[in-house]
Amino acid sequence: VQLQASGGGLVQPGGSLRLSCAASGFTFADDFVGWFRQAPGKEPEFVSLIGWDGISTWYGDSVKGRFSISRDNAKNTLYLSIDSLKPEDTAIYYCAAKRSGKDRTTMRSYDFWGQGTQVTVSS
Q1: Which end of the chain has fewer CB atoms at under 10 Å, N or C?
Q2: Helix or strand or coil: residue 93?
Q3: Contact, 90 vs 39, CB < 8 A?
Q4: Helix or strand or coil: residue 111?
Q5: What is d(CA 52, CA 72) in angstroms, rounded to the nearest whole number?
Q6: CA geometry: angle at 105 spanning 21 and 100, to 5°?
Q7: How many whole angstroms separate alpha carbon 101 and alpha carbon 62?
Q8: How far is CA 110 from CA 5, 38, 54, 83, 97, in A?
Q9: Cα–Cα distance between 123 and 111 in angstroms, integer?
Q10: What pLDDT tens digit does each residue of the chain (123 aa) get?
Q11: CB atoms inside a 10 Å sphere around CB 1
């Protein structure tokens, strides 16, 4: 099983990014997939989750309105589009997969994890 996150980088405040997470080794289309982030010195934070059908989505309160999650089951790829980036969005962003939508904000409920991609928002 592999989840490979990419797309992070250094971005100025107000900018945009699209993160990707390429999945392999499991039936991606059957799983809920999502994102967490961990800022320096802080606990990991739930960002977003999307259902297997690509229709049901959930977001953490701090990212609602600026973040958009999507998936392409034909490409086994998860995406996270981020607009109006703020310095407080600086973190390592991790993608993860789970079989159900329950306990979506709880890290231990996820079965598979990627290695993370760094997003730094700074002028």
Answers
A1: C
A2: strand
A3: yes
A4: coil
A5: 10
A6: 70
A7: 20
A8: 16, 16, 18, 26, 6
A9: 36
A10: 999 999 999 999 999 999 999 999 999 999 999 999 999 999 999 999 999 999 999 999 999 999 999 999 999 999 999 999 999 999 999 999 999 888 999 999 999 999 999 999 999
A11: 11
For residue 91 the two structure tokens come to 């973190």
Q: What is the spatial distance between Cα 48 and Cα 92, in angstroms, rounded to a whole number?
A: 14
CA nearest neighbour of 34 among 90, 78, 77: 78
pLDDT, residue 101, reads: 86
| DSSP 8-state secondary structure symbol assigned to residue 105 | T
Q: Which residues pair with 21 in a beta bridge?
A: 5, 78
DSSP 101: S
**DSSP state string for 51-89:** -TTS--EEE-TTTTTTEEEEEETTTTEEEEEE-S--GGG
**How are beta strands 112-113 and 117-121 bridged, if at all?**
unpaired
- The pLDDT assigned to 89 comes to 96
For tokens 């407080």, name the residue: 88
Residue bearing tokens 């600026």: 66
> What tokens does 62 get?
């701090």
